[in-house]
Amino acid sequence: MNRNIIVAAAFFGIVIIVIAGFSSYYFSLLEAQNMPMIKPTSMINLENGSPALGSESAPITIVEFGDYQCESCYYWFHNTRSTLIDNYIETGKAKLVFVDLPFLGRDSITAAQASYCAEDQGKYWEYHTMLYTFQDGAPDSGWANQDRLNSFAFTLEMNMDEFNDCMDSSKYKIRVKANYNEAVKNGVQSTPTFIIISSDGTTKKFAGAQPYSVFAATIESML
């Protein structure tokens, strides 16, 4: 066969392949343009977390994964949280849910269980505040041992028989473990870690004791 004919045939073959490929891409593009945008959906299970702080109907949910013996969590609690509550939670724009990631020591686990025993008496957030107010020293240094946990409950004027029965029975052991598993499932590797969820299920995640400005900018972009 003449060499020029072979070259021409090869050239036309390439052209046909290119045209076919372009047509396939073009029609795929048209099809994609006619499809609705799929918004990311939050798969975080908050069933075992804390009661929500703020309005249940708030359009933004702030999920905090934390450990009561975490120094960075303490820092965030005392430097950012109150302003966030004033400007977003008390105004009905956001609600806060705490999910336990008790990995720093044995007292982290019992402190988390104690917070839910306090919830039984309607004092979850008061007890939560007590734990972060009196955090003192390294993990498992004794500041959150059983005696101290009891003293926090006594200070809050809780029914001590009910509180002790709850703690002695390890009533919330499974709940705390479920929260730990939820944190791991969502790729949380340190505390505090925050996941902000909008009303349409879109999420934004960041780790560390971030300043108020980071939360404000993130929430405003999602409202």
Characterize the structure shown:
There is one protein chain. The chain is of the alpha+beta class and 223 residues long. The protein has two domains: 1-35; 60-222, Glutaredoxin (3-Layer(aba) Sandwich), CATH 3.40.30.10. Helices cover 52% and strands 11% of the residues. It has nine helices and four strands, in the order H-E-H-H-E-H-H-H-H-H-E-E-H. It has helices at 3-33, 71-79, 81-89, 106-119, 124-133, 146-155, 160-168, 173-185, 212-222; strands spanning 60-66, 94-100, 193-197, 203-207. A hairpin with a 5-residue loop joins strand 3 (193-197) and strand 4. Helix 4 (106-119) packs antiparallel against helix 5 and helix 4 (106-119) crosses helix 7 (160-168).
Please summarize what this structure is.
With 223 residues, this protein is of the alpha+beta class. It is built from nine helices and four strands. The protein has a four-stranded mixed sheet, with helices on both faces.
What's the story with the biggest beta sheet?
4 strands, mixed
Q: What does the average pLDDT come to?
A: 86
Strand residue content: 5-15%
Uncertain segments: 1-41
Described by its quaternary structure, the protein is single chain
State the helicity in percent bands: 40-55%
Secondary-structure element order, as H and E? HEHHEHHHHHEEH
Specify the overall morphology.
Answer: globular
Q: End-to-end span in angstroms?
A: 70 Å
Domain Thioredoxin-like fold: 49-196
InterPro entries: Thioredoxin-like_fold, Thioredoxin-like_sf
Protein name: DsbA family protein
Transmembrane segments: 6-27
